[in-house]
Every structure is written in structure tokens, then in C-alpha cells.
Amino acid sequence: FAEVAARDAALGDDGVVVPLLHRIPFQQALLEYLGETSLFYALHDAPAQVDRLLSLLDAQLADILPRLADLPMPYVEFPDNLHGLMTNPRLFRRHALPAYQRYTAVLHAQGKRVGSHTDGDVRPLLALLAESGLDVCESFSPQPLTACTFDEAWEAWQGGPLIWGGLPSPYLEERTSAEEFEGFLDGVLERAAQRPIILGIVDLFMRHN
User: How many CB atoms are located within 10 Å of the residue 57 CB?
Assistant: First the structure.
């Protein structure tokens, strides 16, 4: 906690440190332990073992999250890298939605806001993310990076989560005209007059941008 506070103080008004949690159990299994193909085979061939792994990872997070009560930070984030084709709606509804709802309840009780790194195509997950308890979808990447348009997410998340991102990096490339870029940005800023957004470049700010 002291290291986090020191780094935050060093940034001053130039930014804010975002403490990253573990990924939620399903995303850990998908991205860290088994990988996409192996996990999908395991869900079919060995569901009891997958459930056991997810249960152990859930118990670990259930132990960690209450320990953050004394962390003096207003915001924490799951680095989940959500993508609606990998963690599809059926899998999300079973494995991610109840996990998010439990974890965010713990963190909200500590006075913290909670986000997830959602840099993939979340179009299939828009309605489910609205039920998740998440306060922020960070690195939201709309078209042309994914199939999801900015307007689709904006309408689906009227009651939250808040969008952090929204400005796809291809709009900063030479192939995009100034008129197209400014038209997109005007639309975003018009909506931002209605409710907050943290406008940022997604998913990466590359040299050619």
C-alpha cells in the first residue's frame, strides 16, 4: 500500500495510479493457466476439474479483496481483457457475471469504484456488463477496432458502466481524414455533455498514430 501511495503522490496532478487486481477466475483460466483452446476442450471434457480450478481462484480473490479496505485509493481494476467471442455471453453469464457482482459488492462497501479492462469486442456482452456491478469499462475499443460501435455501448450503458477510452487509435492515422476524425469526436463530445466519459485513445497509442 505504501508503494502505491508513493507512486500516486509522485504523479501529482499529472495522473492517477490504478491498482490492478488479479483477473477474475474465468479470465485467469482463459488467459493465464490453460489458454483459449485448452480451456474450451476442458469445459467439455473435464467440467468438474474446471469448476474446481475456478473455485480455488475465487477463494483466493475472496481472501484478497477484503484486505484492500485500508488501501487509500478511489479506484481499482480487474485486468480482464474481455472479448465477447472468447468469454461469450453464455460463459459470461455463468462464470463472470456472478463473480463481478460479488467482487464489486465487496469493493463498493470499501468506498471504491471498480473497473475492468475491456479492450476486446464487447458487443455481445453490452447488456451483461450493465448488470455486472462494474463502474467503469476501461479501454473500451469501438469500431473500427471491434464490431461494437460507440453508440451501441453508449445506449446500453446509460446507467453505467462509465466508458474509459472510446477513441480508437486508427482515427489518429494518416489514412483517416481530419473531417472523419473531427466528426467522430464531435459525436462523442455531444454525448459527453449528457453524462461523464473518460476520453482516451484505445487500445494502444502506437508510433504510427
Answer: 21
